[in-house]
Amino acid sequence: MNDALRIGLGIDVHRLERGRPCVLAGVRCEAPAGPVGHSDGDAALHAACDAVLGAAGLDDLGTLFSDRDPQHRGRDSADFCRACLQRVQERGLRVLSLDLVVETETPRIGPYRQAMRERLAALFDLPVDRVNVKGKSGEKVDAIGRGEALRATAVALLGPR
Ligand code: MG
């Protein structure tokens, strides 16, 4: 067993509002509605950050970057990823793999999937073939199925630098 490996889980839900830009995993998607949030609302990046931070034994995203802090209003969530990666590296760790599920009625993730993988790989400094993104529809069930919200779930594996 390799006890230097560490796994983390991140989950993020955002309400959707018509007319807002829809940025997921750092990729601008064509959709009638976008996530509401204090920052840009990128639930996929927020889930990825929490998975990475969790694996490193660090505080979660909401603790590190308070949504009450005006300097984070409308902030590009890529900034959060870079800050998380820096903290992880300071702990002598690196991200070995990332796997995400994005549950949403619209947009469908398929057409954006490869761009999302590439963006996540660049932000967390790992090869594209170690990043995966899957889209799931809400199957008309609950707030996600009605198109009122979306949810992103991420798992991260970390190891020594
Ligand atoms: Mg969030």
Produce the secondary structure layout.
Elements: E1 6-18, E2 22-24, E3 27-29, E4 33-35, H1 43-55, H2 61-64, H3 77-90, E5 93-103, H4 113-124, E6 131-136, H5 142-145, E7 149-160
Parallel strand pairs: 5-6
Antiparallel strand pairs: 1-4, 1-7, 2-3, 5-7
Helix pairs in contact: 1-3
The structure holds magnesium ion (MG).
Magnesium ion binds next to strand 1 and helix 1.
Stretches where pLDDT falls below 50 for ≥5 residues? none
Task: Tell me the CATH architecture.
Answer: 2-Layer Sandwich
Number of helices: 5
General shape: globular
What class would the helix/strand composition place it in? alpha+beta
Number of strands: 7
Radius of gyration: 15 Å
Mean pLDDT: 94
**How many structural domains does the protein architecture include?**
1
Determine the fraction of residues in helical runs and give it as a percent range. Answer: 25-40%
The CATH superfamily name is: 2-C-methyl-D-erythritol 2,4-cyclodiphosphate synthase
State the separation between the terminal residues, measured CA to CA: 18 Å
Major β-sheet strand ordering: 4-1-7-5-6
